[in-house]
Amino acid sequence: MSDRQPLLIIAAGGTGGHMFPAQALAEVMLRRGWRVRLSTDARGVRYVGGFPHSVEIEQVASATFARGGLINKVLVPFHVTGGVIGAVLRMLRDRPDVVVGFGGYPSIPALAAAWLLRCPRMVHEQNGVLGRVNRIFSRRVDVVACGTWPTTLPEGVEGVAVGNPVRAAVLERAGAGYIPPGEYPMSVLVIGGSQGARILSDVVPPAIAALPEAMLRNIRVSHQAREEDGGRVARYYAEAGIDADVKPFFRDVPRLMSEAQLIISRAGASSLADIAVIGRPAILIPYAAAAGDHQSANARGLVAAGGAILIPESRLDAGSLSEQIAAVLGNPKGAAMMAQAAFGQAMPDAPQHLADMVEELAKGGKSR
Ligand SMILES: CC(=O)N[C@H]1[C@@H](OP(=O)(O)OP(=O)(O)OC[C@H]2O[C@@H](n3ccc(=O)[nH]c3=O)[C@H](O)[C@@H]2O)O[C@H](CO)[C@@H](O)[C@@H]1O
């Protein structure tokens, strides 16, 4: 590396699942004196508010076969080719030291350009099963960093277990003291990933309303519901006399998690990493339609360690969920052991580890 400030390009698709780990790496690299540029599409740009202000933003065309009509699908190869040509020209001008892809179609232009120009590059896969873009590039990058371990990788591809980097606001609460459930106000946090989950809005309110009266009196719920479900969820809690805060997205999830006696959640990779790093008992309901059932794979470690209870969507109903909630909240010792076990699965040094790998690559060394 010369004396100029090193440049990292982070390429990530437009969902929270890709953007939160990208943000965590950006935060560390800026602290290490790097310039950081985020390459994403219009959907991803909605998340940049959470990124440090000094991160440069480069918006690429949204090109995916997964959405849009026939015309969109016909145009995808042109968008992708245009995106790659643009990325090659910018890289020839700016000579990034390392390019890291976090998955999703918008990461294609930067990764393809880095491959063509032989620029040091890696992908980070958050899930227990490789996403489509990361699978394509897994043989064309220097390193495949894995957030969930073990990850199913294509034959001949080696991965490095790094963990899913969590945001600074989560790290500040790593292993925060847990107050086990008892005869005092208890908090239950319900989150459905970055978009919210309809099934949790259908099943969780009646499950909570069916808890034993003595328990119910002390419960406070923070429930993330999709915009269109928020009204009915809030009404349900109000009519059942339950103290509830219903929002489409909580900006202060790290605080809410640290205050919670129990978390009910989907099994998206960052949600699980946050739960483990803060160390809280959880009931997990993996999204059954996720590609390759990767949410079940994500949850495996936490559940096997005794930090979480898994309920498959196919067996989820208000009655059985209510029993599971009562079992956790009615057993302070068991809940404290779950919190401990969850923290035992955390990889809080994932952001630093990933940052070390970026610096290794920049020096020309391989990280594995
Ligand atoms: C439906 C779907 O396909 N989801 C995928 C998507 O997850 P999705 O985008 O749903 O997100 P994750 O669960 O990985 O991350 C969500 C993040 O949002 C935070 N949060 C959540 C709710 C809220 O109100 N406020 C808030 O800050 C969580 O604490 C977490 O940090 O990408 C992930 C990573 O590739 C995958 O593992 C998921 O399977």
CATH topology of the largest domain: Rossmann fold
The oligomeric state is single chain
Individual helix count: 15
**Strand sequence of the main sheet, in spatial order?**
3-2-1-4-5-6-7
Task: List the ions, cofactors and other small molecules found in this model.
Answer: uridine-diphosphate-N-acetylglucosamine
What would you give as the CATH superfamily of the largest domain?
Answer: Glycogen Phosphorylase B
Percent helix, as a range, is: 40-55%
Shape-level CATH architecture of the largest domain:
3-Layer(aba) Sandwich
Mean pLDDT: 94
Structural class, by secondary structure, is alpha/beta
Percent range for β-strand residues: 15-25%
What's the level 1 CATH class of the largest domain?
Alpha Beta
EC number: 2.4.1.227
Pathway: Cell wall biogenesis; peptidoglycan biosynthesis
Pfam families: Glyco_tran_28_C, Glyco_transf_28
Keywords: Cell cycle, Cell division, Cell membrane, Cell shape, Cell wall biogenesis/degradation, Glycosyltransferase, Membrane, Peptidoglycan synthesis, Transferase
Q: Your description of this structure?
A:
This protein has 368 residues and is of the alpha/beta class. The protein has 2 domains: 7-166 and 348-364, 3-Layer(aba) Sandwich (Rossmann fold), CATH 3.40.50; 171-344, Rossmann fold (3-Layer(aba) Sandwich). Helices cover 43% and strands 15% of the residues. It has 15 helices and 13 strands. A 7-stranded parallel β-sheet has the order 3-2-1-4-5-6-7, sandwiched between helices. Strands 10-9-8-11-12-13 form a 6-stranded parallel β-sheet, sandwiched between helices. Strand 5, helix 5 and strand 6 (143-146) form a beta-alpha-beta unit. Helix 1 (16-31) crosses helix 15 (350-362) and helix 7 packs across helix 13 (318-329). The radius of gyration is 21 Å and the shape is globular. The two termini are 20 Å apart. The model has no long low-confidence stretch (mean pLDDT 94).
